[in-house]
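In the design runs reported in the main text, the only information available to the sequence generator was the tokenized backbone. The following block is the verbatim input for one such run; it is reproduced so that readers can re-run the procedure and compare outputs position by position.
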């Protein structure tokens, strides 16, 4: 008998034996497979010499090229002073291409190589990070590892996009290969474009999974706190204060009538001691204030400051 509660499957064997097993979500597995396919397509595109090819009916001296290979058919470079032809497919750093390597590798082509290399590495690091929670290691840092995988996949997609976009714009430059109209983008270039979309989809799914895992972690934390509430560390329990407002309401009309009968006199000024006591009383009379149960007696009530005695009005006598 088995059941699933928030990603954790509970397997019961017998009346008392229970096994708790963490269950990987389907979204996380799908994102991992999509990221894996993106890495495979990036590796194939990275290593294949079919980024740019020449039409067969053109009979061009240039045959095809990749990021690291160039293929020629009895090609003779115009700016090369020696009477030497290049035939066959060779690595771009071959000693045979030493004299024309600056022409084969312009600055934008080196940037394409760098972007595709970094894209492949970022995708690899993302899969390495996400493999840890899939194998149920370091479950405490499950959310952090998913976020790390999301960041790596996002960087892989961004760098792949920059790489194939620069190549698509600059491949027909007349300062690079002769007769660019006779060349076309081959299937390895489109694999790089496909890898970009796969990495982007994997990054989006990792973001959704990180959000779901964080919400699930919050639910688990709240459940644990509700089952095992924490006691105050100092051993005291705070209780709200209750203020006696009836005496204040009864005292207010008297003070108003007293000062109202002598409108030509200003109300007597209180001393500094009375003002300080009034400030203290107003602080503790707030309905949101709280004190410790053991810091004040149970029958504590805020007392109003003593009022000064009323001043007598001097009488005037008229001599007859």
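Verbatim output:
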């Amino acid at each position: 008998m088995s059941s699933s509660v928030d990603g954790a499957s509970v397997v019961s064997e017998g009346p008392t034996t229970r096994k708790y097993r963490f269950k990987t979500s389907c979204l996380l597995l799908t994102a991992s497979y999509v990221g894996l396919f993106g890495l495979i397509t990036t590796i194939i595109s990275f290593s294949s010499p079919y980024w740019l090819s020449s039409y067969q009916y053109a009979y061009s001296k240039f045959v095809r090229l990749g990021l690291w290979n160039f293929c020629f058919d009895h090609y003779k470079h115009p700016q090369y002073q020696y009477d030497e032809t290049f035939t066959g497919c060779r690595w771009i750093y071959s000693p045979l291409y030493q004299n024309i390597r600056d022409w084969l590798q312009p600055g934008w082509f080196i940037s394409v190589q760098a972007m595709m290399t970094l894209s492949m590495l970022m995708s690899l690091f993302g899969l390495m990070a996400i493999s840890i929670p899939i194998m149920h290691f370091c479950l405490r840092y499950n959310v952090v590892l998913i976020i790390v995988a999301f960041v790596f996949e996002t960087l892989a997609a961004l760098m792949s996009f920059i790489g194939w976009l620069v190549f698509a714009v600059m491949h027909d430059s007349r300062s690079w290969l002769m007769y660019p109209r006779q060349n076309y983008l081959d299937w390895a270039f489109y694999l790089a474009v496909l890898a970009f979309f796969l990495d982007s989809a994997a990054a989006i799914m990792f973001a959704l999974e990180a959000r779901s895992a964080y919400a699930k972690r919050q639910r688990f934390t709240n459940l644990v706190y509700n089952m095992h509430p924490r006691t105050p560390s100092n051993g005291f329990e705070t209780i709200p204060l209750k203020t006696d407002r009836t005496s204040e309401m009864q005292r207010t009309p008297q003070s108003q009538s007293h000062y109202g009968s002598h409108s030509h006199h200003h109300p007597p000024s209180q001393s500094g001691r009375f003002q300080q006591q009034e400030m203290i009383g107003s602080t503790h009379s707030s309905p949101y204030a709280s004190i410790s149960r053991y810091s004040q007696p149970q029958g504590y009530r805020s007392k109003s400051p003593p009022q000064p005695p009323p001043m007598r009005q001097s009488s005037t006598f008229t001599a007859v």
